[in-house]
């Protein structure tokens, strides 16, 4: 397996499959932050230590298979081009921090891309497991399987009182971040999101954009995750987040039902106008594409449009990002050129999927 394999399909297996509550919950993610004992954390270490950390983890992973018939591939950041790293970010396989700020980092990926292990990001190891729909418990189980394998071979930085030690104090304890990616057009259109976000924050959770901290909520897609890792067990964190997500799902469905009941023709018109823009535009910017794709997915979920798969939102939200567009073009594109190529790609995909 090499990097080119990760470019043959825009959407990873976990994004192209249906899961529980997948009309609203696009994906579930568990991320575990771990550091090696007796090694300086990545925020302060030097290149020699970084290389040693990579070598230790590479040796540990080579010593036996974690999952049967599931190969692992290590990609080192200093061996990748800028566009290649950007594509990995757009596929949610690495963080922007690892792509932009770590020339001595790496990522280990499974063949299906449902597991990625970032090395020398903010922490020595960040194990990330991704599942379609609302499957936090399943993602936690798999993350723990990879974590247990490594912990049997590597000495982690661990304190009996505080738990796993991490670069950021907010991750100390379990070192776990649980998050879900949700599509919430109903709550946006009914203007309820501004009321809901503060309530979510009061429960110890945080709402972010599609690519995590500091990113924008393109296409009405948000990430909900826990803020507290100290003093709570992993299972408790997952249960608390799952409970809140079920409430968000109920409110989103209620908002959609209200829109259909009170503004059905206006909503249908909005969906088909967005469909028309996507199917016919020759130039389209990222934000407009994301908004129209959100409307299209909503129309598919509500039954207005039946000839397109609902996974088209997942696929095109990634395929139309700047990194993918430029990589497929074979080099750098100016913003105007990207807008033209984005419109062309969307038209072609809609024609292909609509047959």
From TrEMBL:
InterPro entries: Arg_Kinase, ATP-guanido_PTrfase, ATP-guanido_PTrfase_AS, ATP-guanido_PTrfase_cat, Gln_synth/guanido_kin_cat_dom. GO terms for molecular function: protein arginine kinase activity. It catalyses: L-arginyl-[protein] + ATP = N(omega)-phospho-L-arginyl-[protein] + ADP + H(+). A motif (RDXXRA motif of the pArg binding pocket involved in allosteric regulation) lies at residues 338-343. Residues 24-255 form the Phosphagen kinase C-terminal domain. Belongs to the ATP:guanido phosphotransferase family. This is Protein-arginine kinase. The gene is mcsB.
